[in-house]
Amino acid sequence: MQGLSFREYLVFFHNYDIEVHSLQQIIKNEVKLDNIQHPIPLFKDYLKRGYYPFGVESEFNIRLGQIIVQTLETDIPQYANLNVGTSRKLKRLLSIIAESVPFKPNFTKIAAIINVSRNSLDNYFLYMEQAGVIGQLRNETGGIRSLGKVDKVYLDNTNIIYNLVGDQSNVGKIRETFFFNQMRVNNEVVSSKTADFVVDSFTFEVGGGNKQKKQIENDGKSFVVRDDIEFGYQNIIPLWAFGLNY
Questions:
Q1: How many structural domains compose the chain?
Q2: Domain of 87: which CATH number?
Q3: Is the Cβ–Cβ distance between 140 and 146 less than 8 Å?
Q4: Same domain? 48 vs 81
Q5: What angle do CA 198, 133, 62 make, to 5 degrees?
Q6: The pTM is what?
Q7: How far is it, in rounded angstroms, from Cα 84 to Cα 86?
Q8: For range 100-114, the mean pLDDT
Q9: Three-state SS at 94
Q10: Do 221 and 132 fall within a single domain?
């Protein structure tokens, strides 16, 4: 089940009544945050604890860590009828993904590292994706079993990144993970040859507040997504705005 969007976090954690925004509204910079003058501090908090409803708990990180371990040690092996030793391989695989920025899979090499067959590795990635631990970015549409090649692998959401890596988390990975996680709920998201993502035929390059438009064409369908800015202009859109899509 998909976790909370940034919009839902604002509703449930802070009692702000924010409406769902379409992708068209977002790329036209028509987002509305009534009574919120400075969204960035709230957005930073969301990235660390706002994806799960139990983020309000004082021991949130402990509980999330326990859920991740249970998913890898019990839930996936039982669901897929795998032996007990598989959990160690799944945890090793998750560790490899968490250390990368983001992870561009070399399946043959990884299969050798964790000592499994190439076909088994494909299944491991799929099980972890279905369990909400990772997200796989493919190079063409077609659903979770798409024929498209897996181009990048992300941890499913930014709360998991902070749980596994802590405050040393790579900021670029956090930005891309948030964008991919929020956009894939209502839209087809695939990799781009010229930027980071293609969403429903629109191209997006994700970066920091100083991200330039060098890789983006001025064609009305290409956009720069910037972190650390409160409001957008022209084809530059604040990263947090994509959390209002559901």
A1: 2
A2: 1.10.10.10
A3: yes
A4: no
A5: 130
A6: 0.92
A7: 5
A8: 87
A9: helix
A10: no
209: pLDDT confidence band, cut at 50, 70 and 90? low
1 within a domain of the structure (yes/no): no
How sure is the predictor about 1, in pLDDT bands with cuts at 50, 70 and 90? confident
| Four-residue CA torsion sign, 242, 141, 208, 156 | positive
Local structure of residue 54 (DSSP, 8 states):
G
Give the integer Cα–Cα distance in Å for 230 and 172.
18
Q: How far apart are the first and last CA of the chain?
A: 13
**Shared domain check, 70 and 42:** no
Q: How far apart are CA 231 and CA 240, in angstroms?
A: 9
Measured CA to CA, the distance from residue 85 to residue 209 in angstroms comes to 45
User: Beta strand 222-226 with 236-238: parallel, antiparallel or unpaired?
Assistant: parallel
Task: Note the pLDDT tens digit of each residue in 153-190.
Answer: 999 999 999 999 988 888 999 999 999 999 999 999 99
pLDDT digits (tens, 9 = 90+) for 15-41: 999 999 999 999 999 998 988 999 999
Say if residues 237 and 219 touch (Cβ distance below 8 Å): no
My answer on whether 154 and 223 are in the same domain is no
Residues 81 and 123 placed together within one structural domain of the fold: yes
Q: 110: which residues sit within 8 A by CB, 6+ positions away?
A: 93, 96, 121
* Same domain membership, residue 147 and residue 115: yes
| Structural domain containing residue 118 | 60-166
Q: Is the dihedral of CA 8, 211, 30, 202 positive or negative?
A: negative
On whether both 64 and 154 belong to a single domain, the answer is yes
190 beta partners: 198
Calculate the CA 150 to chain-centre distance.
Answer: 15
Whether the CA torsion 194, 99, 4, 238 is positive or negative: it is negative
Q: How many Cα atoms occupy the beta-carbon half-sphere of 51 within 13 Å?
A: 23
